[in-house]
C-alpha cells in the first residue's frame, strides 16, 4: 500500500540535533514500522533549513521536505498562512507517477494540508491530532497558548477526514463531542520502543534516599508545582525533574526559577533537583534510577512518559486523565489519583515508596502491560488494518 504521512511542522530527521522527538518521533517510527511490513511510505514535512536535501531515504521510507513558507523554523501560528501552499504542493506532487492510496495527517496543521491536497480526489484521509485545542483549553485554562484559529480549524478538519485516530479514551470522547460519529473514531495508542526502554541496563547515579522522577517540559501545564507541594507529605525523598532547556540554561529560565522558589518556600530546596533536558536515548537510565515516576500534567493525550517508565519496570503515580488513565492500571502497575488532588498525590507517593514489595509487583506488571499492549509493532498493525478499511470504503464497487 502507498501511504503518505503529512506533518507540516519541522523536519523529522535533523542533522546536528539528533533523532526526532515528540510528534516527529512518533511519525518516524510509524513510517519505519509500516515500511518493514512492505508498504511504500513517504513522509511529507515542511522544509525549515535550506541546507537540507529535498528528499532523503531513511529506514526504508522516503522523507520529502516541502518548500512551504520561508526555510526557517516557524511557530505553529506562523505556519497557518502556509497551509494552502503546502496542500497545493502535495496535490501537484501526487498528480505525478507516485500517488498515495491513503493519506495520514498528523497534528492539526498537517491534517489541514493533507485535506486540502486530496479534496478533488478519492484518496481517503486518516487524521491523528496528537492533542486537541478544546481539551487543552479546558484543562490548562489561562496557561493555554494555542493560536486563536486552532479550535475552529480543528472542528472543521473533523468534517473533512474519513476517520480520526485517538490515542486515549478521553480523546475518543472529545472527538465525538466535536461532532464525529463514534464509528469514525479509532483508538490506536502510541507505541513504546521496548528495545530502548526495558528494565535491564545502566541507571543514572542517585542518592541513598528514595527517588521520585518527573519528566516533562518546564511549563506551568506539566504540574511540577503540584509535585513540589506534594513532597511535604512524602518525607525524606528526592524529587528529580527532567525536562526543559539544557541544564546550563536553567538559571535564566522563568519556570525553573519559579519552581526553585516554590521549593525554597516549602522548605524543600534540598529535596528538589532540576536536571534540565535529557536526550531521549538516555532517558531509560533516568527511569531505571527512580523508585517511582510521577506524572502530573494538566493535560496528556498519549501518556508517553508513563509508558516509557512502565517499560523500564518502574511503577507510576499519576493523574487519572487522558493517556495516563489508559496506560496505568490502578493498584496493578501504579496508582491513579484525581487530577489536582495534591494531598492524595503526596500520600500515594509516600505509601508506595515505603512498600518495597508493592513497587516490585507493580514494576513487573508494568513491563508485561507495555509489552502486550503498547509496542510499536502493535500500533503499526492497528494502523495498517485501519488504512485497509478506509481504502476499501473509497474504492468503487465493480459490477
**Whole-Å distance between the termini?**
24 Å
What do we call the CATH homologous superfamily of the largest domain?
Glycogen Phosphorylase B
Secondary structure: number of strands: 14
Largest sheet: 8 strands, mixed
The parts where pLDDT drops under 50 for at least 5 residues are 12-19
- Structural class by helix and strand composition: alpha/beta
Continuous helix count? 15
Query: How does the overall form come out from the CA principal axes?
Result: globular
Spatial extent as radius of gyration: 22 Å
Helical fraction equals 25-40%
Along the chain, the helix and strand elements come as: EHEEEHHEHEHHEHEEHEHEHEHEHEHHH
CATH fold group of the largest domain = Rossmann fold
Query: What CATH architecture label of the largest domain applies?
Result: 3-Layer(aba) Sandwich
Proportion in β-strands: 15-25%
Number of domains: 2
How would you explain this protein's 3D organization?
46% of the residues are buried. The chain is globular. The longest helix is centred in the last third of the chain and has 19 residues, at 376-394. α1 (22-36) crosses α15, α3 (83-93) crosses α4 (107-118) and α11 packs across α14 (356-373). The protein has 399 residues and is α/β, with parallel strands linked by helices. The chain has helices spanning 22-36, 76-79, 83-93, 107-118, 133-140, 150-158, 169-177, 224-230, 254-265, 283-289, 304-311, 322-327, 342-353, 356-373, 376-394, and strands spanning 2-7, 40-46, 55-58, 61-66, 102-106, 125-128, 163-166, 185-187, 211-215, 238-242, 272-276, 292-295, 316-319, 334-337. Residues 12-19 have low confidence and may be disordered. It is 39% helix and 17% strand. It contains 15 helices and 14 strands. It folds into two domains: 2-191 and 376-394, Glycogen Phosphorylase B (Rossmann fold); 211-373, Rossmann fold (3-Layer(aba) Sandwich). The protein has an eight-stranded mixed beta sheet with strand order 3-4-2-1-5-6-7-8, sandwiched between helices. The chain has a six-stranded parallel beta sheet with strand order 11-10-9-12-13-14, sandwiched between helices. InterPro entries: Glyco_trans_1, Glyco_trans_4-like_N, Glycosyltransferase_grp1. It comes from Micromonospora profundi. It holds the Pfam family Glyco_transf_4. Keywords: Glycosyltransferase, Transferase. Residues 205-357 form the Glycosyl transferase family domain.
Amino acid at each position: 500500500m502507498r501511504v503518505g504521512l503529512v506533518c507540516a511542522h519541522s523536519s523529522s530527521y535533523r542533522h546536528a540535533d539528533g533523532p526526532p522527538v515528540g510528534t516527529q518521533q512518533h511519525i518516524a517510527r510509524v513510517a519505519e514500522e509500516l515500511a518493514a511490513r512492505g508498504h511504500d511510505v513517504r513522509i511529507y514535512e515542511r522544509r525549515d533549513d535550506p541546507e537540507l536535501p529535498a528528499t532523503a531515504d531513511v529506514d526504508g521510507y522516503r522523507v520529502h521536505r516541502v518548500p512551504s513558507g520561508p526555510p526557517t523554523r516557524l511557530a505553529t501560528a506562523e505556519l497557518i498562512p502556509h497551509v494552502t501552499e503546502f496542500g497545493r504542493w502535495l496535490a501537484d506532487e501526487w498528480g505525478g507517477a507516485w500517488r498515495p492510496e491513503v493519506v495520514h495527517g498528523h497534528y492539526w496543521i498537517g491534517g489541514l494540508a493533507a485535506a486540502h491536497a486530496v479534496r478533488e480526489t478519492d484518496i481517503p484521509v486518516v487524521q491523528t491530532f496528537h492533542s486537541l485545542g478544546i481539551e487543552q483549553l479546558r484543562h490548562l485554562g489561562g496557561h493555554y497558548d494555542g493560536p486563536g484559529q486552532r479550535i475552529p480549524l480543528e472542528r472543521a478538519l473533523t468534517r473533512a477526514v474519513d476517520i480520526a485516530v485517538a490515542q486515549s479514551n478521553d480523546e475518543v470522547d472529545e472527538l465525538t463531542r466535536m461532532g464525529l460519529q463514534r464509528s469514525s473514531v479509532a483508538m490506536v495508542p502510541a507505541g513504546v520502543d521496548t528495545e530502548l526502554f526495558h528494565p535491564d541496563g545502566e541507571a543514572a547515579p542517585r542518592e541513598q534516599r528514595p527517588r521520585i522522577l518527573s519528566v516533562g517540559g518546564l511549563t506551568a501545564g506539566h504540574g511540577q508545582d503540584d509535585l513540589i507541594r506534594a513532597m511535604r507529605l512524602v518525607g525524606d525523598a528526592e524529587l528529580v525533574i527532567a525536562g526543559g532547556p539544557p541544564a546550563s540554561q536553567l538559571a535564566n529560565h522563568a519556570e525553573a526559577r519559579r519552581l526553585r522558589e516554590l521549593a525554597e518556600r516549602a522548605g524543600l530546596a534540598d529535596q528538589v533537583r532540576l536536571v534540565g533536558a535529557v536526550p531521549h536515548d538516555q532517558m531509560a537510565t533516568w527511569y531505571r534510577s527512580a523508585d517511582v515516576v510521577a506524572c502530573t500534567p494538566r493535560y496528556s493525550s498519549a501518556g508517553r512518559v508513563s509508558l516509557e517508565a512502565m517499560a523500564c519496570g518502574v511503577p507510576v503515580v499519576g493523574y487519572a486523565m487522558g493517556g495516563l488513565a489508559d496506560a496505568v492500571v490502578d493498584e496493578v502497575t501504579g496508582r491513579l489519583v484525581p487530577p489536582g488532588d495534591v494531598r492524595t498525590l503526596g500520600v500515594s507517593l509516600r505509601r508506595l515508596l515505603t512498600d518495597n514489595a508493592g513497587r516490585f509487583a507493580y514494576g513487573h506488571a508494568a513491563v508485561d502491560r507495555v509489552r502486550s499492549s503498547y509496542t510499536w509493532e502493535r500500533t503499526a498493525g492497528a494502523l495498517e488494518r485501519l488504512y485497509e478499511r478506509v481504502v476499501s470504503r473509497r474504492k468503487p464497487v465493480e459490477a
